[in-house]
Amino acid sequence: PASARPASTGFFAEGGLGAVAFLPSDSRDAAVRPALQVRVGRDLFSFLSLGVYLAASSHEATVPPPPAGQWFQLYRGGADARLGGRIGRIALFLEGGIGASMMSSNVLEKVKILDPGERTSITFHAGAGGEYQLENRHYAIGLGVDAFLMPQFSNIRALDTRLYLRYTYGGG
Hints:
- The structure is a single chain.
- This protein is mainly β.
- Helices cover 0% and strands 65% of the residues.
- It is built from no helices and eight strands.
- It has an eight-stranded antiparallel β-barrel with strand order 1-2-3-4-5-6-7-8.
């Protein structure tokens, strides 16, 4: 019987679509909205990879009026490590890293999430996920969930969920 082809390892690129949800108590001031994420990296071993990511989401500020109908964008970028294992076509992983975040607007100053003039924060994230290797061993689809913390923004905590497509440029 033919066995499943092993998943590729090497340089990879991922593109994901999901949502960012702020956790209580910040969830009352910012609505859940769609997010995009791009990640590139390198599998050092079959169980360890290092990568960098860029993510963006756009949120409606649900702060008390005035103003009403305000929006802000959250931009994040950073580096992380991913530890995982594979059973056949299924891979599970844990990931964590550090980066930076930037908010496009001061609308959250009203509820004291942002200090006047503050737009950037260090960001810590950790999460988990799984992926399924497609018939072509270079491609996989996956689902990941990361919790992130932005300490300079009054310790905002949020969840980033994403469905992604991964392509690995390697044969090993």
